[in-house]
Amino acid sequence: MTLSVPYGRNQRVLNLPSGVHPQVLSARVEEAAAHPQAAIAQALLHPIGTPRLREIVQPGEQVAIIVNDVTRLVHSDWMLPLLLAELAAAGVADRDVFVVFATGTHRAHSQKEQEEILGPEIARRLRLYDHDAYDPGKLVMIGTTSRGTPVWINRRVFEADRVILTGEIIFHLIAGYSGGRKSLVPGVAGQETITRNHSLILDPHCEAGRLGGNPAHEDLMEACRLAPPDFLLNVILSSGGRLLKAVAGHYDLAHQAGCQFVDEVFRAEFDQPFDVVIASAGGFPLDIDLRQAHKGMENACRALGENGALLYFAECSEGSGSRACEEWASKFKTAVEMERELRKQFQIGAHKAYWLARLAEKHRIFLMSELPDALVRACRLTPCHDPDSTFAALLDEKGSTPRVAFIPSAGFILPCLSTGTPSSSAMRGETSDVVSSH
Questions:
Q1: Residue 186 and residue 201: Cα distance in Å, rounded?
Q2: Which end of the chain has fewer beta carbons closer than 10 Å to its terminal beta carbon, N or C?
Q3: What structural domains does the chain harbor?
Q4: Burial class (CB in 10 A: 0-12, 13-18, 19+), 46
């Protein structure tokens, strides 16, 4: 038997010893929309908690559309033409519409990347701007949250007459779920704002799949209410990039509806922890760098039992994605030391080194990637160059009947130990394209 494992823009093949049949943790079977843009148009026709977009905007108003950056799988090229059609129906001309890429603290885009995100035709029609979280001249301070987060956001966005958020909703390690308010903060927020909000990760209530009582989410919502967006369009995609659902309308109410759908589709239950988990971040862009690939690694480790081992596939074609992560991984020896320093002065990127160290101190993690071995080891992970041999050795180590799981797209899936009660989530899904028998 072989497994086809997503790796960058391609697949890697893992050969399994005879008799090994891993339990696949994947999304529930959901029929993708046959015509994605038609499904998105229906969401725009029936918004949640607001009138239609064409009833909100007025001719001559300046409209900012916030779009996710290249590290997210979103399909903005499906959404933008339909949003522009809605705006045109309200009498808003292209010259009054501009796009801001929600880069947060990530790098800027090349022109080619902007065109890939939006599609060449839309990229030519509109004014395009990369957000810069580090330039005070391009930011404006609009207030402070009750947790003391100073809220700086993109000046162009703040001065626009109307703001439209777009994005994708999946589980998020800090804020519970991506999408919604995250396009504004941290998407087009200042570095100080992003750093302060990220510092809340040290609270155990900041976790994937949680909104209520999650301090990071609550802080983001407070920040968002200081400059409330006028409209939201978010999508929920399969791990292969197919449209499962679109939600539109109020930036909070529509987002909540999308989060509920994500719960129904992407929570994967299991009855006992596993000895060995084989997992992929999900391929590009979920494994564009270690900073992004780590998210799926965290999810995958939720399925491991005590002394469990993870064989993780993440190409990381753009390296670690964070110089601070590399520096901290080399500078500190333990997660406790890193946490102590983070509590003194939080640093974006350094928190990734802390998270990796925390995982590696609990589980053995073997990483198949294009990263230098020295960097992988500095992050407390074990470099893997021969997945077949590594997996075979793990099986020998674990004994005659180890429990094995395969998570083809760990960036999407949230493994959850079953409570013994019926659930809409399960360990099932589209296994025909990832598992084959020979």
A1: 14
A2: C
A3: 2-29+266-436 (3.90.226.30), 36-237 (3.40.50.11440)
A4: exposed
Residue 50 CA to residue 157 CA, distance in Å, equals 20
Question: What separation in angstroms does the CA of 147 have from each of 210, 219, 222, 320, 375?
Answer: 19, 7, 9, 30, 35
pTM of the model: 0.89
Question: Does residue 430 surpass a pLDDT of 70?
Answer: no
**Dist CA 243 CA 42 (whole Å):** 13
Q: Interhelix angle for 350-362 vs 335-344, to 10°?
A: 150
Question: By CB neighbour count within 10 A (0-12 exposed, 13-18 middle, 19+ buried), where does 243 fall?
Answer: buried
Cα separation, 277 vs 386, whole angstroms: 16
| Summary mean pLDDT of the chain | 92
81-88, long-range: CB within 8 Å, 24+ apart, which pairs?
81/37, 81/119, 81/122, 82/37, 82/40, 82/41, 82/44, 83/44, 83/53, 83/164, 83/166, 83/233, 84/122, 84/125, 86/44, 86/52, 86/53, 86/54, 87/53, 87/54, 87/57, 87/63
List, for residues 49-91, the tens digit of each pLDDT value. Answer: 999 999 999 999 999 999 998 777 789 999 999 999 999 999 9
DSSP reduced 3-state for 214? coil
**Element (DSSP H or E) covering residue 130:** strand 127-130
Cβ contact 91:58 at 8 Å: yes
Q: What is the CB neighbour count within 10 angstroms for residue 273?
A: 16
- How many whole angstroms separate alpha carbon 314 and alpha carbon 296? 9
Contact 3, 16 (CB under 8 A): yes
Find the length of the chain.
Answer: 438
DSSP-derived secondary structure for 393-414: HHHHHH-SS--EEEETTTTT-E
